[in-house]
Automatic annotation (TrEMBL):
It comes from Candidatus Coprosoma intestinipullorum. Residues 5-286 form the Transketolase N-terminal domain. PANTHER family: TRANSKETOLASE, TRANSKETOLASE 1-RELATED. It comes from the Bacteria. This is Transketolase. Residues 336-424 form the Transketolase-like pyrimidine-binding domain.
């Protein structure tokens, strides 16, 4: 990519200026991940005039504080005006400081709680496979915080098992968290970790090498792809590498010393940036036309998000237990409704299984029974992701006593008004 270093400088400067202007926020991750963000934007296919376009690629900032980078990329492409950008983190703004589902039309999920975004992304990838959308990709940007959360292992392990080759994770490896350098808390070997759970692993040593990142993103894969991109928090500023920049403005005395700063041009767009995005916007229009021609049938979320059809009242068999009755009714609904079901290794106990359908697997993504394994937390968040990418409702189940592990993902689904269905029977007596 021509002039990528100059565009990256522009991203970092503007992120620092915007957070300074807001008086609070998270400049660090947006600045460290500017290189991977630019590469991602170059390859991401979306229709700027139709954010619900069914054949779009999905992007999730699982580290929700990085959403400021997405806003700035939208500003450069012309989707967000300067006037609206100045409402960042203000009351009633469409641009909150952390990712909030549909606060801005292209924000695909609420991800303020670390780890939820990657599990949502796994669900999105499963959903797209299930509806036979084999062209759209799911891109997830995360940092150390998400990878330290247990839900990341649960969900990414399942993604490897299901061979979700439409899922790409970009890891902003800046080795920094709020309390300091992560060498005291997080020393995992990423290559060993992800290859052991059936992912492809790549490492980019220079986080500003956009062309290297692009070459990896364009490569054909048969597994989910994890790209570790090394960088430094608040890169490009005098506070580069300083943990304080995670959640605090750099301050004007630091920002005005950054490359390209001009006191007479606030939130400026460099000529090189303007030239690139003019060409990029035209290329996007061509890509949208190409995908629409390639796929004659487009499925949009709204078309699939239909209310459940209630079957005619069946016979009440009093010899069945309550769980068995529930299963019978669910299967009657399944015969005339499109939804998926799954359990955390308890389908024989909770009876949450569609009898006339196969399991969803890497050999058969059309199956309606998802075998989640013992992954309660991920299960609930993956169900949310499936709905987000397809509008298909998901029924998940485990024992009520185990549902404590699901509370955070249930809360996040509730915040987003996602109609997941939870079947949580009491544990059977021995």
């Amino acid at each position: 990519m021509e002039n990528s270093s100059r565009i990256i400088e522009n991203l970092r400067l503007n992120i620092a200026e915007l957070v300074d202007y807001a008086g609070n926020g998270h400049p660090g991750m947006g600045m460290s991940s500017a290189g991977l963000g630019l590469a991602l934007w170059d390859i991401l296919i979306k229709d700027t005039g139709n954010p619900d376009w069914g054949l779009r690629d999905r992007v999730i900032f699982s580290g929700g504080q990085g959403i400021v980078l997405q806003y700035m990329l939208h500003y450069f492409e012309g989707s967000i005006s300067k006037e609206e950008l100045l409402t960042f983190r203000k009351k009633n703004s469409r641009l909150p400081g952390l990712s909030e589902y549909r606060s801005y039309p292209t924000v695909e999920s609420t991800t303020g709680s670390l780890g939820q975004g990657i599990a949502n992304s796994v669900g999105m990838a499963i959903g797209l496979k299930h509806i036979k959308n084999n062209i759209s990709k799911v891109y997830c940007v995360l940092g150390e915080g998400c990878l330290e959360e247990g839900i990341s292992y649960e969900s990414m392990s399942l993604a490897g098992t299901l061979q979700l080759d439409n899922l790409v994770v970009l890891y902003d490896s800046n080795k920094t968290s709020i309390d300091g350098k992560t060498e005291e808390t997080f020393r995992d070997d990423m290559k060993s970790r992800f290859e052991s759970i059936h992912w492809d692993y790549e490492h980019v040593e220079n986080g500003d090498d956009v062309n290297e990142i692009l070459n990896i993103l364009r490569s054909n894969r048969t597994k989910p792809l994890f790209i570790e991109v090394s960088s430094k928090i608040a890169k490009g500023s005098l506070l580069e590498g300083n943990p304080v920049t995670h959640g605090k403005p750099l301050g004007r005395d630091v920002t005005e010393k950054m490359p390209g700063y001009d006191k007479n041009q606030f939130l400026q767009i460099f000529p090189e940036t303007r030239k690139y995005f003019k060409h990029h916007n035209q290329k996007l229009k061509e890509e949208v036309l190409f995908r629409n021609k390639l796929f004659s049938v487009e499925v949009e979320n709204k078309q699939m998000d239909a209310p459940l059809v209630v079957p005619e009242k069946g016979e009440n068999n009093k010899n069945l237990t309550l769980i068995e009755q529930s299963s019978r009714i669910m299967n009657e609904f399944a015969g005339i409704n499109n939804f998926l079901v799954g359990s955390a290794d308890l389908s024989r106990s909770t009876k949450v299984k569609i009898h006339d359908s196969e399991n969803l697997s890497k050999e058969n993504y059309l199956g309606r029974n998802i075998v989640f394994g013992i992954r309660e937390h991920a299960m609930s968040s993956i169900a949310t992701g499936i709905y987000l990418s397809t509008g298909i409702k998901v029924v998940v189940s485990t024992y009520l006593s185990f549902s404590d592990l699901m509370k955070n993902s249930i809360r996040m689904a509730s915040i987003m008004k996602i109609p997941n269905i939870y079947v949580l029977p009491m544990m059977e007596s021995p």
